[in-house]
Each structure stands twice: as structure tokens, then as C-alpha cells.
Amino acid sequence: MAIQRTFSIIKPDATQRNLTGAINAKFEAAGLRIVAQKRIKLTKEQAGVFYAVHKERPFYDELCDFMASAPIVVQVLEGEDAIAKNREVMGATNPAEAAEGTIRKEFALSIGENSVHGSDGEDTAKEEIAYFFSGLELVG
Ligand code: ATP
Ligand code: MG
Question: How many Cβ atoms are within 10 Å of 20's Cβ, its own excluded?
Fold first, then answer.
């Protein structure tokens, strides 16, 4: 497996409960390195662009409101098989179905307020990283 980069968000429910350090400890323990990171606050419109793939889904409006409700931490994780590894550490979308020890099992409040986002493939990882970071901000 090759070294990959993937895009990660610590969502509003987690930043509001002071969980950024606990969440990033899990990524680092799994061998993922944080090679870029910043704390920002999205507008609802920016959240809508980011999650545009879900715009026909019934939860889209609620999801955009949630993602714009408080600051988020956007970051790039690098490591061996990073895209799949990140999603493994995150756990299933619905915390009720997430495996023991995963971030969503330990920290998520609900299927919507589920603490973290992670890219789901190589193309989305590239697009999502480019949406939030310039090349100069990817420092390794
Ligand atoms: P993410 O894209 O945030 O990493 P995911 O890939 O596990 O999550 P998706 O199916 O892409 O899951 O859904 C995107 C996000 O939309 C979820 O993480 C969650 O915040 C929200 N969401 C998904 N399904 C529901 C639902 N049934 N009700 C409310 N919110 C939902
Ligand atoms: Mg997704």
C-alpha cells in the first residue's frame, strides 16, 4: 500500500465539547500524521458546497446548518493507506453501528452529529484537500 493523503474534519459537535485533542490522539496512534490543519467557521453556503453530493437527501438542510453552527477543524492526514485507515478509525456513520474503540463509537452524538468527516476515495480526497488548503499549507 502506498502513502496517501486524506481530508479530515473535526465537526462542530466535537469542537464544542473540547474533543479535538482526544480525536487527533486516535489518528496519531493509528499512524496518521497531521500534515496541515486549521480551525475555521463555515457559512451555510460553504457547507452546502462541500456536501453538495448529498443535496437531494432529506437530511441535507439539517447537515448544512449543523456544519455551519460552530467552528470546525479541517486537516490533512498522511500515512500508509490513509484514506481507508482514517475511515476505519472514524467508525461507521451511525455511532450505534460503529465498532468499539472508533471515534464515532466513543464520541458521536447521533448519525448527524457524528464528530468527524473523512474522504471516501482518492478523487474526493484530492478535491476536498484543494477546497480548503493551498499547496503552501501542506507542510508534511
Ligand atoms: P462523512 O462524509 O461526513 O465522512 P460518511 O461518509 O460516513 O460521513 P455520508 O453518507 O457521506 O457518511 O453522510 C455525510 C454526513 O451526513 C454524515 O457524516 C452525517 O453527518 C450526515 N448524515 C448522513 N446520514 C444522515 C441521516 N440519516 N440523518 C442525518 N444526518 C445524516
Ligand atoms: Mg461521506
Answer: 17
Residue nearest to atom 29 of ligand 1 (CA): 112
Q: In terms of pTM, does the model score above 0.70?
A: yes
Helices 82-90 and 20-29: crossing angle in degrees, nearest 10, is 130
pLDDT tens-digit map of 95-115: 999 999 999 999 999 999 999
Q: Is 11 annotated as a binding residue?
A: yes
d(CA 4, CA 84): 10
Q: Is 54 a catalytic residue?
A: no
Our answer on whether the CB atom of 63 is closer than 6 Å to any ligand 1 atom is: yes
> Is 39 within any annotated ligand binding site?
no
Ligand 1 centroid distance, CA of 107 (Å): 15
DSSP string, 61-83: HHHHHHHTSS-EEEEEEEEETHH
